């Protein structure tokens, strides 16, 4: 991500985009690409959790790869 995401609302919107991609893949692709759908669901869960970290005053950018 080029810029830092800092508000719970920003994290929620990013998570909803990942879930929309997962929903789209389920609805349109046959065979269903389960590993790609799982990836987007995992990314959404992580973004929702990062939003929760912001709410309680923690830094959501807590690790590096």
Descriptive overview:
The protein is an all-alpha fold and 65 residues long. It has one domain (8-55). It contains 2 helices and no strands. Helix 1 packs antiparallel against helix 2 (34-55). The relative contact order is 0.20. The model has no long low-confidence stretch (mean pLDDT 91).
Features:
elongated, mainly alpha, 66% helix
Overall pLDDT score = 91
Radius of gyration: 13 Å
Number of helices: 2
Structural class: mainly alpha
Strand content: under 5%
Oligomer: single chain
H-E string: HH
Overall helicity: 55-70%
Largest sheet: none
Q: What is the terminal-to-terminal distance? A: 13 Å
Shape: elongated
Let me know the number of strands: 0
Number of domains: 1
Low-pLDDT ranges: none
Summarize the structure.
By secondary structure, the protein is mostly helical.
Describe the secondary structure blueprint for this structure.
Elements: H1 8-28, H2 34-55
């Amino acid at each position: 991500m080029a810029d830092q995401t800092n508000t719970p609302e920003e994290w929620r919107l990013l998570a909803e985009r990942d879930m929309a991609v997962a929903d789209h893949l389920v609805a349109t692709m046959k065979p269903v690409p389960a590993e790609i759908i799982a990836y987007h669901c995992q990314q959404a869960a992580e973004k929702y959790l990062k939003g929760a970290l912001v709410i309680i005053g923690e830094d959501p950018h807590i690790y590096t790869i």
